[in-house]
């Protein structure tokens, strides 16, 4: 995938890579619709771009309504999301139905298979308020009021390093794009964090990368399985793809994955769903996964934290990010709507490169 990086006059290689990492734009998307011509900022060097609701720099503001239904603009947004991991809009007035249509369009413009639609979460009950393909995200229950939570008080909270995940990687065909809007805001708190799978890969040594690129891992939705057993529930199926069927919620994916939009490699394991590296002994697998999970949760230099406001919208690429809610609300409520598009079956293209390597190669041309 051709990548255009803004020219830099700096000779220092460290400064050159900083410039490349913060100014990346896909040339095809820029020709179609220049998203960076609108008031925005990159939240960190490696992940997160936010479009402001006001302009402090004289550039015009960009609303998600300026993008909805326009193929060129949706394609440009999808490319930017895949490059930056997650994109935020501060002034995004849209319905849950528009939310799911947007992520479906991003996936289609990105080339997802025709058999991949929108995900129906296995615990979503039929006849839900916003339809099967919109998940209601709440700190009070798990996807439906039937499955109440009682672990949100301070002494029952889970260890937050354990909350990092990529959506639905227990499915044979997992997510490409997803979006979330918090529609009932708490007084304070309830932030969401994202981490870059590209940067997680780039921070590994060449020897470690070679090891991981030959491995596969089993992903299982064990938490959802446990909830279903306690409630004598049956999982919904099919779940947005003919391959996403069955009651096991378990599948196998490569440990290193190529994002087809950018052509960049990323780490593709997460503490929420990855249970076993298949080519290793159990002891070896446990130790390696513990390292990789800590690698994701402990390195805040490839994380971004987002504070929700009214009408805030987050759109991210699940192929190349991890995310985690901040469960600091006690009895206060936080409710949102999430839509999840399905992409391709994960794969590793041996000709693909890491993000930093690709940007430096382009800069050297």
Compile the SSE list and pairings.
Elements: E1 4-5, H1 13-22, E2 24-25, H2 27-32, E3 40-42, E4 49-51, H3 71-84, E5 86-89, H4 96-109, E6 134-138, E7 175-184, E8 192-196, H5 197-202, H6 206-212, E9 216-220, H7 222-230, E10 250-254, E11 256-258, E12 265-267, E13 274-277, H8 282-298, E14 303-306, E15 313-317, E16 321-325, E17 335-342, H9 355-363
Parallel strand pairs: 4-5
Antiparallel strand pairs: 1-2, 3-4, 5-15, 6-17, 7-15, 7-17, 8-14, 8-16, 9-10, 9-13, 11-12
Helix pairs in contact: 3-4
Structural class assignment? alpha+beta
Strand content: 15-25%
> How many strands, which pairing sense, and closed or not: the largest β-sheet?
7 strands, mixed
Give the SSE string. EHEHEEHEHEEEHHEHEEEEHEEEEH
Oligomeric state of this protein: single chain
Low-pLDDT residue intervals, each spanning 5 or more residues:
1-31
Instruction: Trace the largest sheet across and list its strands.
Output: 3-4-5-15-7-17-6
Amount of helix = 25-40%
Kindly give the count of domains: 1
Described by the principal axes of the CA atoms, the overall outline is globular
Task: Give the total of beta strands.
Answer: 17
Question: At the fourth CATH level, what is the homologous superfamily?
Answer: Clavaminate synthase-like
Rg calculated over all Cα atoms: 20 Å
> What's the total helix number?
9
Give the CATH architecture: 4-Layer Sandwich
CATH class: Alpha Beta
What is the overall pLDDT average?
87
